[in-house]
Amino acid sequence: MPDGDGGWQPACPAPASHDGERITLAYGEGGRLTRRLIQERIVRRFGGDTLAALGDAAVFDLPAHRVAMTTDGYTVTPLFFPGGDIGRLAVFGTVNDLAVSGARPRAISLAMVIEEGLSWDTLDRVLASVHDALEATGVSLVTGDTKVVPRGAVDQLFLTTTAIGEVFFLMPGPKGMEAGDALVVSGPIGRHGAAVLCSRENFGFDPPPVSDCGSLLAPIEALWKAAIPVRCLRDATRGGVAAVLHEWSMSSGLGMTIDALAIPVTPDVRAVCELLGLDAVHLACEGTFVAAVAKDHAAQALETLQAHGCESAAVIGEVTATRSTPVRVRTASGREIPLDEPAGSPLPRIC
Amino acid sequence: MPDGDGGWQPACPAPASHDGERITLAYGEGGRLTRRLIQERIVRRFGGDTLAALGDAAVFDLPAHRVAMTTDGYTVTPLFFPGGDIGRLAVFGTVNDLAVSGARPRAISLAMVIEEGLSWDTLDRVLASVHDALEATGVSLVTGDTKVVPRGAVDQLFLTTTAIGEVFFLMPGPKGMEAGDALVVSGPIGRHGAAVLCSRENFGFDPPPVSDCGSLLAPIEALWKAAIPVRCLRDATRGGVAAVLHEWSMSSGLGMTIDALAIPVTPDVRAVCELLGLDAVHLACEGTFVAAVAKDHAAQALETLQAHGCESAAVIGEVTATRSTPVRVRTASGREIPLDEPAGSPLPRIC
Q1: Residue A187 half-sphere exposure toward CB, CA atoms < 13 A
Q2: Quick one: pLDDT at residue B203?
Q3: CB contact, 8 Å: A220 with chain B?
């Protein structure tokens, strides 16, 4: 919490409706009003002794020796989109960064930069969403920070979440990949990118694409419990599945070949891609990972994923020995063509 | 690091001068250019195996059982001010939040939101400053995130730093305060607030006030090593020393009385306060703490602080049994008057 928010409960807090409809600068300046925002909107909602102590830092026990830490800033626009919002995205995005690193989140922090004039209703909707996402993953909000900046200094609301977790699943990483390994995706790809794009541009698709924004912890724990020899995992966010495969190719020195017909894509995302000339492999996911799995265990990996909420999990290709072309796609006609890595995405502020 | 930045070194990176003078949106979108920014500006500068691995999360050993975690967003304007800049502020602010919680920082993360068009020179100056501050405190940057947002979506550059540390100094906290405890400050107060205010408004003070932005770890470790019975510590950031004393009064149920003549204030800060009608106790510090210390050990605490870089450390008052008036100031004439807690600060974007 920002310095200046001692762990006390105002004797007689005014109801939130007394705040007016919009957040003013004074709520960010570390005095009485900041404390009120934090008590009424954060501590009451999220509870927990560690958070409620409101010290300069959260103090808690972390028995693990091997830990994982990750941070992400969220600047998505619009704040709300089909399938999620910036709050849900911030929690699951950070939880997923730990999950694909084989770590179970233990504590999370939330730093907010709020634009003067943001409505309390918007803030409350986002915080409710943060709360629900934390509940769904069983992770505690332990500390945070709130800044309110003058109108125009930030676009509505930016969040930064940082999480620390205990490593349970040790994977060799891209350097441990071998030619022949199966490339698996946990579900239909490109849903988040398509949802944000359509939500922003109002293309009028009906039904609109819905983001896959969600937690990857359960299916990854399932892979670990089933003792599947997973070489590495990555959630396919900015840059999509294509970016993950390019990175893995560069890290491992191996090639990646995927089969266009094997890639799960929902009809709504397919429609968006066809109309706008996009390829789903370049669109961001926010609840879908790519895994490289020892070939002999690919079928078992799929069964495990399908039994744990990833009904559309699929083997989409394999690791190859040569990388004269780092990533290749086998098209419907059977021809293999290079899959480019884009220099920059056509879509800023996707997350 | 953002998803999409595998741990690879480009075979033949172009020199930074090929980037043009300003940062474009494409550098934030997770592809080749983001990777280049991260490799050339971050990994090369900060080094370290944990950072260079560039996984979705940093994985490292943390043997401590009892840990402290803190996060802070930095939106200060201007980015550079006498005595510091946003990078130095972000590192020391977060390190100090751990230090006053009795924890030694072990790992820190850095999330940046960059406005399209920010100059590379500005970014490099800030990152050099982050680097120097980390070196000074011996803490490793282990992970980060970079977003570039369109012009107007953020004012230049916002940083969020999160740190995790090992608790070495167990203090009872405000509830462990007792009437008679000495209130100690580690140095002259209000320097950061005065420096940012003057830097922003160009009042033309000569010499201008210089921020106290710096690490509090060494003097706090010294208090611990000297076994001083410190009840609680807090760095006096937003809201200044006044905010700290008000919080402690509320948390402890005790009163705080300070002596106007005992409070160390530098001549430049005094001049600013006199001219602008401000009180230094309300101005932010970024390298100065308030401590409540058992009365019999106040002299020893001062000696210890003075021997560890806090030459101006002073006892400024004491904890009192009653709190009909939570915080009181004994003026030069000997009269005791209430010290108000401001509802909101007159100075947004101080940190």
Answers
A1: 27
A2: 85
A3: no
